[in-house]
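Q: What would this chain look like folded?
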Amino acid sequence: MSEASSSSTHRSSAYLNALTQEIEKKLQRALASPSQRRNLLQELFADIALEVDDRARDIILSGEEGGICPAEDGIDSRLCFYDVLADHYVRMPESGQRILDLIVQLWSQLFVSHIFALLFHKWIFEVQLNNDEVLLRYSSALVQGATNVFWIDIQTNSRHFQSLFRYLLEEVALEPARLNKIPVQVQRDLFLVLSRFIFFYNSVDKLESFLKQFPVFPNAFLVGGSADFFVIEVADQLQKLKVEPVLLHYLSQIKVLQGMELRMTTSTRLKTCLYSFTSPGGPMYPTRAVRHAAWDALDFLFPVGQYPRHVISLFFRLLYPWCWPSSCWNFIMSWLKAVLHTLLRVVFSSWEKVRAEKNS
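A: My prediction, written as structure tokens:
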């Protein structure tokens, strides 16, 4: 039994070492070929972000003892190459040292921060780095690379890098022992990044704990508390979203902000942001679904004054005459659907009463 386990472990380790060698070769080619550098780095990033196929999964997991389990975080049993390599470089730091040296030489190139964040997001919190300058450089690159890959998920409306987000949130931001290993300024940057994407990655259940761990900002006396910083980041993120399903997801999740104690300036900022999505035309050009979701969120979070807001909005709609036909048509259809549903409820209610009388 022990021989079989040892054989599986050796096989898994050999496979991961082979992957490491392939990564090294591609980085060396990128370093030696400036004209092909961007394409090679983009290919490498795409390769390590791929989901592990069944054959490779069997090899890798057969050698894991209490290590990687693709379903441990509930992320659709998805296991990507960067997940297994990140764990591998924590267990065997020397295995990734050559890759790290090559990454440092390519530091300013596009996709390098992406690659570093995926491969070494666990390593940086598990090894001892005695050089403060190196630690600052690595941790800053981690936050920048994580931001870049999270935006890729936003643009594609996927959760391909959810495991990276979950690790940074649950194992770093909510774990002071790891969090305090990186400089304070990077801690602040990390919390701001996580604030922007916490709705997207469906982690609102950790919001209360997350806000309690928020680092102190030097301008807090002007901005407010952790809730103010969080809401400001969310409002700014909403303004940047261009993918309709993602925007609708944010607008549905944002209702958890109800009851938060915010400064008046923060509350007004959020209200203005949501209101910008309620009217057709520029600057946001929201779709009808987005407009309705924004109204729902706005009325839910700020119930005071909702009727005057709708009246004012109606008058502003008159400034867009090209929208009148579609607005009238949607109003008529909504009214007919409401009438039909009411009639059906009356019919079914009457039918149930008749059946109840017959049975009695």
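The mean pLDDT is 87.
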